[in-house]
Amino acid sequence: MRILVLGAGALGGYFGARLLEAGAELAFLVRPKRQAQLRREGLSVRCPALGAWCRPVTALLAGEVRPGWDVVLLSCKAYDLEAAIESIRPVVGPETAILPVLNGLSHIDTLREAFGEAAVLGGLAKIRATLAPSGEVRNLSNWRYLTFGEMDGRMTPRVEALAALARRGGIEAQAVPDIRAAMWAKLVHLGTVAAGTVLLRGSTGQIARAPGGVAFMHRLLERNIAIAAAHGVAMPPGFEAEYRAMLADPAGSYTASMLRDLEQGGRIEADHILGYLLAAARRAGVEEELHALTYLHAKTYEERRAEEKVQRDKDPGRAA
C-alpha cells in the first residue's frame, strides 16, 4: 500500500513510522526545514510500548510529489487545513483515500467539497504524542489508537486493508462502520478536557484537587454528552462512567494538547473544537454559558498572541 503522510510531527511521524514498520511504501510530505532534518538524521520515534525506533525515511516537498497514492494521511492541525488541501490537491487521484485525523468534525465537509464525498474517510487518533525540539517524536503514553471508516458506513476493502496493515505495525487500529459516532465521542472527550484544562490552566488532577473542580469538569462532560445526543449520537456504554472517573482522579496528569500549545505561545484550535461545540450547543438548545466562557478565554488568548506578534514585528529586539 502506497501511503503519503502530510507532516512528520507528533501524529504523522508516529503513525508513519509504525506504518513503515508494517511494510508500507510511505513518504512524508513536509516543509523544507523538516525535510533537511529528516534527510540528515532520519526519523526518530520513542514509545513506551514499542521502544525506540530510528531509520531513514522519504521526505518530500510539495513540488516533488506525484499522483499514485492509495492513502493520504492528514495529520495537520485544523487551522492548517486549507494549506493542507492545496498541498495534496495535485497528488490525489480517483482512487486515493484521504484519511484525516484532525480534531473536530467541520473538516469533513471542507474536504468533501475539495475532493468529493467518495475520497474522504472519517478518522480519529487517540495518542499523547509530542515533537521534541530535537525532532524526535515522543509518544507520552501507551495510547496508539487509530480508528477510521467510510462516512457512509460501508466496510470497504480499502479500510479493512489499511486497518490490517496498521495493526502489523503495532498500531491499535480499527475500521468501524459508524465513524461519525466515534468522532463525536472523541469530540465530547476532547472538548471537555480542552475546555477545562485551557480555562483553568492545569491538569485534570490539579483541577480535581481544587475546590469545585470535579463538579465543574463533570458539568462540562454532561453538557457535551447532551450536545452529541441532540445531534443524534449517543455515547457508547460505559463512556460517561469512564470519563467521570478520569476527571475525578486527583492523581491525574492529563492535559489537552491545546493547553500545551497555548503555554508554548503557539496557535490553538479554538474555533475547531471550542467554537464548534459552542455553536452546536446553541443549535441543540443546551445551556451554553460554560462553552461561551471557554471559547471567549481561548479567543482572548489568540487576540493577545496576535497583538504581541505585531509588537515583535515592529521591534524585533523586544522580548517575547
UniProtKB/TrEMBL annotation:
Signal peptide: none annotated. One of its GO terms (molecular function) is 2-dehydropantoate 2-reductase activity. It is an enzyme of class 1 (oxidoreductase). GO terms for biological process: pantothenate biosynthetic process. GO terms for cellular component: cytoplasm. Its EC number is 1.1.1.169. Pathway: Cofactor biosynthesis; (R)-pantothenate biosynthesis; (R)-pantoate from 3-methyl-2-oxobutanoate: step 2/2. Residues 178-298 form the Ketopantoate reductase C-terminal domain. Keywords: NADP, Oxidoreductase, Pantothenate biosynthesis. Residues 3-152 form the Ketopantoate reductase N-terminal domain. NCBIfam families: apbA_panE. PANTHER family: 2-DEHYDROPANTOATE 2-REDUCTASE (PTHR21708:SF26), PROBABLE 2-DEHYDROPANTOATE 2-REDUCTASE (PTHR21708). Catalyzes the NADPH-dependent reduction of ketopantoate into pantoic acid. Belongs to the ketopantoate reductase family. This is 2-dehydropantoate 2-reductase. It comes from Teichococcus aestuarii.
